[in-house]
Amino acid sequence: MSERMSRRKVFGLGAAGVAAAGAGAIAARSLVQEPPVAHATTSDPFPFYGEHQAGIVTPAQDRLHFVAFDVTTGSRAELVDLLQEWTAAAARLTQGKEAGSFGAAGGSPEAAPDDTGEALGLPASGLTLTIGFGPSLFDRRFGLAARRPPALADLPKFPGERLIPELSGGDLCVQACAHDPQVAVHAIRNLARIGFGKVSVRWSQLGFGRTSSTSRAQVTPRNLMGFKDGTNNMKLEDAALLRDQLWAAAPDGADWMAGGTYLVTRKIRMTIETWDRTSLREQEEIFGRDKVKGAPVGKQNEFDPVDLAAMKPDAHVRLAHPSGHGNAHLLRRGYNYVDGSDGLGRLDAGLFFIAYQRDPRKQFVPIQMALARTDPLNEYIKHISSGLFACPPGVRDAGDYWGRGLFG
């Protein structure tokens, strides 16, 4: 039996299988995670190993492919095997390598290749892969109910939301961010291929044009409404704020989540055509910022201190401001999306909102509840998808894997 077929037997014929030896062969030195900094070029790789997962405070890349999976196997051992395989593949992919050690053209010609090949010749393009575990994973299937973190409490129903169930939730999620859309899509495609027979795709989302900056080295981007988005976002340089507001700690109630964080996603469709017919004055009053400069009401520059008293009581900036929510901050790294049209000539477009935080109960929930109740922006947006995930700490070395603390 060939080495390739032996590996397939170990990991199941439905999965491509990335051998542990393949993970060990990766040069660990080149993968050890240092504090993320802006790239010299957009082709460079980010380190994979480190205290925290990459793709959170990493300077936000230009492209996104996000996917939520349902676990279809009922075997805890098979789920752990899959997480080990995924981790080995992710370590390779983020460094610009093929998903498996044999690659697209190696191994037996009678067997399916262990890389799909569409990213051959492309650089790493700043690819990061970030995993999260949804509340539904902590049911009775895998004996994890007692290990569900308190902060992974189901989100409440917010006023006015119209969520599509099949576009929400999921047992697992993987966020792929890169500067090249083909690199991001290739990564998700190969993880889904490796997971065949153990997981199935529940929903996915492509994104472009980041709508937040996660480093002071980046300029503030714009959303599809034309406004600068995330001006006062937490940044990777804010070490003390990140420690307080982003990273989970053992005293929070789940020791395996120490060094991890919690992710909330929301697909927010915008009624672009109605917004485009709204006067500039009304648009600026709704947001509480100048559309061109991004300056808060009454100020001249984007980063001038916000004067809440100068703007309307229901301005978006005022309703979401940390001062109204016990100093709660979010680390946002959302993306614009356009999914074609709805058949009536209207763009199916908006914001795929992504926010990381230490405890959604104390951060996202009160902020979103205030916005859902009185934000005039609700006239132009509709929340149609929602996700909540616990993102474990980073992978330390080639002997570690995503979620080891949960299953160990």
From TrEMBL:
Keywords in alphabetical order: Heme, Iron, Lyase, Metal-binding, Oxidoreductase, Peroxidase, Signal
Name of the protein in its database record: Deferrochelatase
Cofactor(s), by name: heme b
Sequence similarity: Belongs to the DyP-type peroxidase family.
A Gene Ontology cellular-component term: cytosol
Localization terms from the record: Cell envelope
Domain Dyp-type peroxidase C-terminal: 220-395
Presence of keyword Heme: yes
Cofactor: how and how many bound: Binds 1 heme b (iron(II)-protoporphyrin IX) group non-covalently per subunit.
Keyword Iron assigned: yes
GO biological process: iron import into cell
Function field: Involved in the recovery of exogenous heme iron. Extracts iron from heme while preserving the protoporphyrin ring intact.
SUPFAM superfamilies documented for this protein: Dimeric alpha+beta barrel
